[in-house]
Amino acid sequence: MVIEMEAPAGGTLRILTDPGSFTVNHNLQDNIDIILITHEHGDHLHVDSLKALVAQNPNAAIITNQAVANIIKQEGIGAVVSIVGDGQAMDANGIRIEGFGKLHEEIYKELGQVENTGYMIGERFYYPGDAFHAPGRPVDILALPVAGPWARVRDVVNFAQEVKARVAFGVHDGMILPTARSGSLVNALAKFVPETTYLTMQDGETREF
Question: DSSP characters for 81-113?
């Protein structure tokens, strides 16, 4: 996912999130200012893809948590890395990026939970990664994780109810066939979270909010 935001000082900040193994188009992206990584699982951090991105965008900075930063260092990826974990924040060209949450949602207790950081970008857009951790403040736009071995419809709806964003769109939905992305979950969100406009986006689709 590539997010574009108008910077207060002028120009546009382009942020690419979670270059994972399930998508390859991110390897072709250029003019990226920030690579934002929520956690270390392969569908969010694919080392070869990250290396390709850094080569394609040598001036891009990486923003992530300590666990991912450790992997990047071990892999010898030569990029500027800023650590923004839970309760931390930084300024990127006048746009505030804040970290929320510490753990990935539980898949199975014995598997453990890696560090997962959700990010509020520009005090407006919230991308939680693989966790239902609400930031505890108003959210205008929510990237809502809707599928995965840790995501039940009940959990998705409860999270959307807690956040109460003006608008939300589904992410982490690559395992759902495009023709099935407007099924029971969409109906449940419309019924139980009417204050949030939920949008189903197709692969490669672009939206302006």
Answer: EEE--TT-EEEETTEEEEEE-SBPPPS-GGG--
Q: For the chain, give the mean pLDDT.
A: 91
At which residue do the structure tokens 């982490």 appear?
172
Give the pTM. Answer: 0.93
User: What is the C-alpha separation between 76 and 145, in angstroms, rounded?
Assistant: 31
Residue 88's nearest CA partner among 105, 67, 64 is 64
Neighbours of 199 (CB within 10 A): 15
Rounded to whole angstroms, the Cα distance separating 165 from 159 reads: 10
The residue type at 142: L
How confident is the model at residue 121, as a pLDDT?
A: 98
Query: What is the rounded CA–CA span in Å between residue 84 and residue 15?
Result: 15
- Residue 143 has phi, psi (to 5 degrees) of -85, 105
Within the chain, what is the greatest distance between any pair of CA atoms?
A: 49
Question: CA–CA distance from 16 to each of 27, 105, 120, 181 (Å)?
Answer: 11, 22, 14, 23
